Structures are given as structure tokens and as C-alpha cells.
Backbone:
């Protein structure tokens, strides 16, 4: 009997070692973060998302690799819409998601299309101070919340053949004095939907021959570059 018990103990030890070696700890942490993500989204928006992808957070070079298990990036889907959340399983205050990003861009597109009296328009926004682009915390649930509470709000608008007088007539204070707004009128429609190009050109539009005009608002003040 003692030999049997000894063999069982050895087998258990080997099993535990194998589990640790193959990442049982990581799998347990992943399940915990995914569960927290589902609960967070369900409580915030009232629906149950489907998880489609996951990765642990990136540990800093001064941190031990085990710290990456503290939190992770969870990609989810609901009603054909894909979005991402950064979730700390143990810290409810360290949770953000960008579920509202698509609706925010859509509503801003409608706003600028109406104000500028322009149909062919491309609008996208960046905001939030979290680990993911356009990530907002639990207390920001609606478009109105984003416009009122989101940090570092920047709105980029692209057009081709814009009527300059319609821009001058706009009252950008409606979007908040701290909101940074950049309207770029391009010479070619091929350039107006390139996000990286829009951000690059908006910094120094006078040095780019692809731009017809650029209008920039920051802290309620307007700067205009026309060619």
C-alpha cells in the first residue's frame, strides 16, 4: 500500500510540474479576465458579448513577466460589431472599452455633414486616456457622455471641394472648448480616408501639396491654412 501511495504522490507531483510548465496559471488568469470582461460589458451596456480574441497586457521592461497576468486585452463582438476592452480582473477601476467608437464616428459624421452642407465627408475621432484607442471607463456609456466627459477629444474631418464659407460660419463651441478639431480639405478623394495621413498632415498642412485648406481649433481658438 505504501508503494502505491508513494507512486500516487509522485504522479501528482509530476502532474503539477507539468501543469505549471505548460501554463496552467496563464490559462486560469485568462479565464478570469475573460469572465470579468463579459460581466463588465453586460453590466455597462445590457448585452452579453461574444469573445473572439484575447491577449495579456504587455509587461514593462522593469516588471516581471508574471505581471502580465494582471490584465489583458479582450476583443468581443455583438450584433456584428467588433470592439475591444482592456480589463484588470482584480481592479474594477482599471477597465475600459471602445464599444461606442463606431456610433461616435457615425454621429459626428452626421453633425459635420449637416453643418458643412456636404455629403461626401469622412469623420473619425480619438479620445480617452486608457490602454486602448477610444477606450472609456464604466461611467461613460452614451454618445453624450463621450462628448461631455471623454479625455483628450480630437475630431478629424476630411472633405474634397469644401465650401470655405460654410466652415467659417460654424460654431465649434457646441463640441466643447477643450475639443481639438481639424478639418482638412483634400485635392484628391484617394487621400481623405487615410487615418494616418490625416493625422500627419494636420500637424503641418502647409508643407503638403495634397491639401487645399486646413482648419484647426484648439482651446476654442481657430487657426486656418489656405492655399
Residues:
Amino acid at each position: 500500500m505504501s508503494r502505491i501511495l508513494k507512486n500516487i504522490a509522485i504522479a501528482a507531483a509530476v502532474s503539477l510540474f507539468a501543469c505549471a510548465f505548460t501554463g496552467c496559471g496563464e490559462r486560469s488568469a485568462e479565464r478570469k479576465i475573460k469572465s470579468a470582461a463579459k460581466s463588465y460589458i453586460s453590466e455597462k451596456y445590457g448585452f452579453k458579448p461574444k469573445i473572439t480574441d484575447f491577449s495579456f497586457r504587455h509587461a514593462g521592461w522593469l516588471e516581471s513577466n508574471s505581471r502580465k497576468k494582471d490584465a489583458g486585452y479582450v476583443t468581443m463582438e455583438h450584433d456584428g460589431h467588433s470592439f475591444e476592452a482592456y480589463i484588470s480582473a482584480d481592479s474594477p477601476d482599471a477597465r475600459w472599452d471602445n464599444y461606442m467608437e463606431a456610433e461616435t464616428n457615425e454621429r459626428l459624421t452626421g453633425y459635420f455633414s449637416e453643418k458643412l452642407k456636404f455629403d461626401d465627408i469622412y469623420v473619425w475621432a480619438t479620445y480617452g486616456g486608457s490602454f486602448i484607442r477610444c477606450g472609456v471607463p464604466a461611467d461613460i456609456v452614451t454618445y453624450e457622455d463621450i462628448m461631455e466627459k471623454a479625455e483628450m477629444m480630437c475630431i478629424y474631418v476630411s472633405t474634397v471641394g469644401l465650401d470655405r464659407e460654410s466652415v467659417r460660419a460654424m460654431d465649434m463651441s457646441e463640441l466643447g472648448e477643450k475639443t481639438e478639431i481639424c478639418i482638412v480639405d483634400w485635392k484628391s478623394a484617394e487621400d481623405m480616408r487615410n487615418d494616418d495621413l490625416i493625422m500627419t498632415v494636420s500637424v503641418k498642412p502647409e508643407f503638403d501639396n495634397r491639401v487645399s485648406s486646413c482648419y484647426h481649433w484648439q482651446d476654442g481658438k481657430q487657426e486656418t491654412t489656405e492655399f
About this structure: Residues 26-97 form one domain. The chain has two domains: 26-97, 101-226.
